[in-house]
Write a structure and sequence with these properties.
Elements lengths: L1 E7 L2 H14 L8 E9 L6 H11 L4 E7 L2 E3 L2 E3 L3 E8 L3 E8 L5 H13 L4 E9 L6 H7 L7 E6 L11 E3 L3 E2 L2 E8 L3 E8 L2 E15 L2 E5 L2 E2 H9 L6 H7 L4 E5 L2 E5 L1 E4 L5 E3 L8 E7 L1 H18 L3 E7 H7 L8 H5 L3 E6 L2 E4 L5 E4 L3 E8 L4 H6 L12 H29 L9 H16 L5 E8 L2 H8 L1 H17 L6 E6 L2 E7 L3 H16 L1 H5 L6 E7 L6 H17 L6 E3 L1
Parallel strand pairs: 2-3, 8-9, 22-23, 30-31
Antiparallel strand pairs: 1-6, 2-6, 3-10, 4-5, 4-23, 7-12, 8-12, 10-11, 13-26, 14-15, 14-21, 15-16, 15-20, 17-18, 17-21, 19-20, 22-26, 24-25, 27-29, 27-30, 28-29
Helix pairs in contact: 1-2, 3-4, 13-14
């Protein structure tokens, strides 16, 4: 694979570059496919038909994917002007370019159609997608594409979409799309791909919840407070106009999905005090404000360089968030070292970036740098040894600003730890160290909801200590507490990490067995019951036994009906069974 980037000042320079590349093409020998990746300065967007016509004339077989840009990345440097074009010449691999026209109401169907095309491709390694159009409803679309095998890399982002200034578009060799996507599929037996993500934004302040949405991308209230008030209270940003975007853009909200930390930056404002963001939220989702630490942003970007040099790419594609260049300003090229020192590169500063988590989920993100390396064939040892590996260090600026950044991080870390302790106190029963009743009820609701949407199973167990009042009355509450703690410990020791156990109240405990049938739950219950009998000698009491009830959840159950059934089973063990036994209903 050969990756040959050019930066052209205008359309005439582009014509010259195309002719030059065509003249030198025989030097590359036999090739299987050529891809031209083009990013056009938004001020030159009117020249796009002419540049596409030139490519068709001189290189009729070339595959084309591109879009408009406020800033492109060429040979590891940011450019705010001209036309960036990169020719990728593959020796044995191929690419397929697909135009995707968009309608929000058909987001899922469009995803299904694209998924079918991609899943039918042999030896698919990576998928790139560039999009145009403001506030596309991408969630159903990405839910479908997330079903692609997890080893397939997915990357890309949104080109100029009208957030600031004029609208842009994406294009192939034959189509210009103002609202939709262009997709490039990279295929080949010898083709290998590697991706790395960098952020550098750090959490600031407390965890909050999304409590009201106008739509998926527009937040009205956070913690039952108008979103405008959140910015006023915590950041002192009071101007609800164009200046708000400039001030708030480096303070995104962060959230976690699929084990991945995602960011959301504000894109536009509404008269009612709500704000539209560059990606979606879910009602009830936990969020935190973040701040951009330039040192840490560059530190994480340099860590990507170290990782990418080890991969030894022959070509690099990069997608970075436009807010990163706002934050880094004159130092923006420092984050692009991975695009200069690993291989020839092309890329874009986008208004939203596409990322994929380890579990396969594909999401819209903001504030992210993605570096994608491609190569045909394996690692060349001599090449690897000739590359001096960078040493990644976090360089701290001195002076007032540096010390303030350190202070903010230290205070935020302390607050996070305090919040975690408070959260644990709020949900844990202090005596038994199991879930308390409120948290247990919440977890039971969640488990029942998940079970009713799945093909799995759910079983509920209720356990009551026999004659517990007598233990307290005759031996004292200290011994009674020891019995409670010992029973709780045995419960924890005999259930799986996926099961849920809590103290329902007094001497009653409940266990939720997720994806577990009644037969297995009954075996666990018998093991717990017999081990509890052995506590008598350990605690120096005459007798310790328990009565247990078990029931399987059904698709028609409510939390009340499920609890009533397991409660009845437990009392049947206690009254009809004579205690120290198990009843299954």
């Amino acid at each position: 694979m050969k990756h040959i980037p050019y930066l052209c000042d205008d359309i005439n320079a582009f014509y010259k570059v195309v002719d030059e590349f065509a003249d030198t093409l025989p030097e590359y020998g036999d090739y299987s496919c050529i891809l031209a990746t083009i990013f056009v300065d938004i001020k030159l967007k009117g020249d796009t038909p002419m540049l596409l016509a030139k490519l068709k004339e001189v290189l009729p077989d070339v595959k084309v994917i591109g879009g408009t840009a406020h800033a492109s990345i060429t040979e590891g440097e940011i450019n705010y002007y001209g036309i960036s074009v990169t020719f990728s010449v593959f020796s044995s691999s191929t690419v397929e370019v697909l135009p995707v026209h968009w309608e929000d109401e058909h987001s899922k169907q469009i995803g299904e159609a694209l998924y079918r095309k991609l899943i039918d491709m042999r030896q698919l390694v990576a998928v790139g997608m560039y999009s145009s159009g403001y506030a596309l409803n991408m969630v159903p679309f990405f839910n479908i594409l997330s079903q692609l095998p997890t080893d397939i890399i997915f990357f890309g982002g949104i080109v100029v979409d009208g957030t600031v200034g004029v609208n842009g578009f994406v294009f192939t060799s034959d189509e210009v799309i103002e609202r939709g996507h262009v997709v490039v599929a990279f295929k080949g037996k010898s083709l290998q791909a590697h991706i790395g993500y960098g952020s550098g934004w750090r959490p600031l302040g407390k965890v909050m919840r999304i409590t009201r949405l106008n739509d998926a991308n527009t937040v009205s209230e956070i913690d039952n407070v108008p979103v405008r008030e959140i910015y006023e209270r915590y950041l002192g940003i009071s101007q609800w106009d164009e200046s708000f975007i400039k001030e708030a853009v480096v303070f995104p909200f962060s959230l976690s999905r699929g084990g991945m930390l995602l960011s959301r930056l504000p894109r536009s404002l509404c008269d009612d005090g709500s704000a539209c963001y560059g990606a979606d939220f879910v009602l009830g989702e936990k969020v935190r404000l973040c701040y951009g630490d330039p040192d840490f942003v560059i530190y994480e970007a340099r860590a990507l360089l170290e990782d990418m040099v080890r991969f030894q790419p022959e070509g690099v594609f990069a997608v970075s968030c436009w807010a990163r260049q706002v934050l880094l300003h004159k130092n923006v090229n420092e984050e692009l070292e991975a695009c200069r020192k690993s291989a020839a590169s092309t890329g874009i500063y986008a208004w939203g970036e596409y990322v994929r988590s380890l579990d396969g989920g594909i999401y819209m993100n903001n504030m992210c740098l993605s570096i994608i390396g491609l190569r045909e064939g394996g690692i060349t040892t001599s090449f690897y040894e000739s590359k001096s590996m960078p040493t990644v260090r976090l360089e701290r600026r001195s002076g007032i600003v540096g010390h303030l950044m350190h202070f903010v991080q230290a205070v935020s870390s302390e607050l996070e730890e305090s919040n975690k302790r408070l959260h644990d106190i709020a949900k844990i029963d202090f005596l038994t160290n199991l879930l308390n009743r409120g948290e247990l009820e919440s977890e039971m609701k969640n488990s029942l909801y998940d079970f009713q949407l799945s093909d799995g199973s759910m079983t509920l167990l209720m356990l009551d200590i026999d004659n517990f009042k007598g233990i307290n009355d005759t031996l004292g509450h200290d011994i009674g507490d020891s019995v409670l703690k010992s029973v709780a410990a045995l419960i924890k020791q005999n259930i799986r990490s996926t099961d849920i156990a809590g103290r329902w109240g007094g001497d009653e405990f409940i266990i939720v067995f997720n994806n577990c049938d009644v037969r297995v739950a009954e075996n666990v219950a018998e093991r717990i019951r017999s081990k509890i009998m052995g506590l008598a000698s350990k605690l120096n009491v005459d007798n310790v036994t328990v009565s247990i009830g078990i029931t399987a959840a059904t698709k028609k159950d409510t939390l009340i009906s499920l609890f009533q059934r397991v409660d009845a089973a437990m009392y049947k063990s206690k009254i009809q069974g004579g205690k120290n036994c198990i009843t299954v209903t």
